[in-house]
Amino acid sequence: MHDNDNRPAHTDRPTHGDQPLDAPGPDGHSRRDVLRTAGVAGAGLGLAAFGPGTAQAAPGENQADAVQEAAVPARQGATMIGVPFDRRSTVRVGIIGLGNRGGSMIDLFLAMPGVQVVALCDPVKDKTERAAAKVTAAGQPAPATYTKGDHDFENLCKRGDIDFVYAATPWDWHFEMAKTAMLNGKHVGVECPIALQLDQLWELVNLSERTRRHCMQLENCCYGRNEMRVLRMAHAGKFGQLLHGAGAYNHDLRGLMFDPDYYEGPWRRLWHTRLRGDLYPNHGFGPVANYMDVNRGDRVTHISSFGTPSLGLAEYREANMPKGDPSWKETYIESDRTISLVQTAKGRVIRLEHDVSTPHPYSRINQLGGTKGVFEDYPERIYIEPDHTNDAWGDFAKYADWDHWLWKEHANPPGGHGGMDYIMVYRLMQTMRLGLVPDFDVYDAVTWTSPVPLSHLSIKAKGAPQPIPDFTRGEWRKKRGGVDSDKPAEA
Q1: Secondary structure letter of residue 144 according to DSSP
Q2: How many Å apart are CA 249 and CA 408, to the nearest integer?
Q3: pTM over 0.90
Q4: Residue range 156-182: average pLDDT?
């Protein structure tokens, strides 16, 4: 899920916090936390289901040449690539999870033309009541509310008057909620990451194809002003032939992860006791994948990941947490910084980084390079020929004419993260109202999330490359549209 830190930002660029769903119990752990932790521990993390092992290189053979293709199961339904939404005058929305993220995103759904929030779900009753009050204050009918335990979202999904389900809950629940929504005939959008195991990613693809419902990773960073400007410039050839890119989630979350009032229960911190890989690749991976037309003419083929020792959270705990705190029972294995290299079928290279456990100014890196130049963010700067010479960076602000039509039409959008949240919701609801193909689909969702399990396996294998499945089953070779969209004719 995306972070939505409402505290002062660490940088002048938009930052992220998180959107918990569960209320803590007397021991500081939520009910869902206890259930999920027990399940994961009992299953030994389910690593056998996380994906295939790597091929072994023969003596003298290049390891990269020995990477096996990931197994691709038979398709159970027609592709969802290019499938438009049914046109509708009003999009009826159900929201699951009303913590930091869901509790703020509801404001954007209520600000959209032709959108009605008809149902809300969170086991913490006062959160649901506050959100329901926002709906009626916006002049809409009182929404149905679902607050009876962890699985009441299933009843929301069964309603016949919902077109789109939005899930903003702890990561453990994303797969189950997306699956339930589609099985009940709903399109669904989920915060990052969309699932945490490779078999779950395939199941979401299969369900989307069988049910004919879109399952989307709501990656707001794809709609950032800089990201959309670079995307249009890349597609216009301003960077020449694309060669490499980089994206990251480097954000010091130590204080928030140990704050019992921010994350309701330690659900996010506990993932640092379970996996060693990149837990949150989507913010960096999504935009760069768009630049390179991944799943739209190119595809990612394999990933090699490396991780540092896990020291940052333990040091922070030592300095800041009393000895009786439940966190002292935790052993952290998540690498303080993971660095992954992803290769594409065209030979391009994408670098991904993840670090939420050490001091670092906020950065998503957001880099793109080609035969005519390079862009780098944080701080933003550009160098492309023939505009720039003498190895001196240029001013990216001078390329404002390349802004996407969404940013030209909504120059100062409301909402969090510099307006990218508003742009994302506006565009998604627009495609649903007008019966358009969504900007991204289930294949993008699972591709952008696949580094979670695969980077863990690669780090365990000392950096050995792991094959990334072709979730499109060969459809990636066909050029098609995406976030770099044309402005539709309103009707």
Answers
A1: E
A2: 27
A3: no
A4: 97
List, edge to edge, every strand of the sheet that includes 164-167: 144-146, 115-121, 91-96, 164-167, 187-190, 215-217
Euclidean distance between CA atoms 329 and 345, whole angstroms:
44
Please report which helix (H) or strand (E) contains residue 424, including its range.
helix 420-434
Please give the DSSP secondary-structure letter assigned to residue 143: P
3-class SS at 260? coil
- Under the phi-then-psi rule, with left for phi > 0, alpha for psi from -120 to 50, and beta for the rest, what region is 28? left
Short-list 265, 226, 250, CA closest to 377: 226
Q: Please report, to the nearest 10 degrees, the dihedral formed by the alpha carbons of residues 192, 196, 199, 205 taken in order.
A: 0
Strand order in the sheet with 300-307: 381-384, 373-376, 367-370, 242-250, 349-355, 338-344, 300-307, 466-467
Q: Name the 3-class secondary structure at 392.
A: coil
**Is residue 193 reached through a cis peptide bond, with omega within 30 degrees of 0 on the bond before it?**
yes
Distance CA 306, CA 436 (A): 40
Measure the CA–CA gap between 164 and 178, rounded to whole angstroms.
Answer: 11
Residue 234 CA: distances (Å) to CA of 43, 219, 388: 44, 20, 17
* Separation between Cα atoms, residue 474 and residue 452, nearest integer Å: 23
**CB–CB of 94/120 below 8 Å?**
yes
* CA atoms of 69 and 54, how far apart (whole Å): 9
Residues 207-244 as b/e (b if ≥16 CB within 10 A, e otherwise) read: bbbebebbbbbbbbbbbbbbbbbbbbbbeeebbeebbb
Q: Which residue has the tokens 């659900």?
A: 267
Q: Which two tokens stand for residue 55?
A: 């091929």
| d(C-alpha 14, C-alpha 417), whole Å | 4
pLDDT at res. 265: 78
Band the pLDDT of 471: cuts 50, 70, 90. Answer: very high
Strand locations in 80-179 (E): 91-96, 115-121, 144-146, 164-167
Distance CA 121, CA 180 (A): 14
User: What is the per-residue pLDDT across 184-228, written as a single tens digit (0 to 9) for each?
Assistant: 999 999 999 999 999 999 999 999 999 999 999 999 999 999 999
Residue with tokens 């595809």: 299
The SS3 call for residue 133 is: helix
Amino acid at 181: A
DSSP string for 189-225: EEPSPS-SSHHHHHHHHHHHHHHT--EEE--GGGG-H
